[in-house]
Amino acid sequence: MAPHTPSAVARGVVDLGLPGRPVPARHKVKMVLHRGIVTGTIPGGTRLVQSSIAAELAVGTRPVREALTELAAEGFVRFDKRGGAVVRELCRTELEDIYEIRMMLEPVATARTARSAAKASLRPAIQLLVAMETETDGARWAEHNARFHNVIDEAGNSPRLVAILKNLRELSTLYITHSVLAVPDRAARANAEHEEILRAVFAHDPVAAADAVIRHLDGTLGALRTMHQLRAPLPATRAACWADGPALP
Question: Which of 58, 45, 56, 54 is nearest to 85 (CA)?
Answer without folding.
Answer: 45
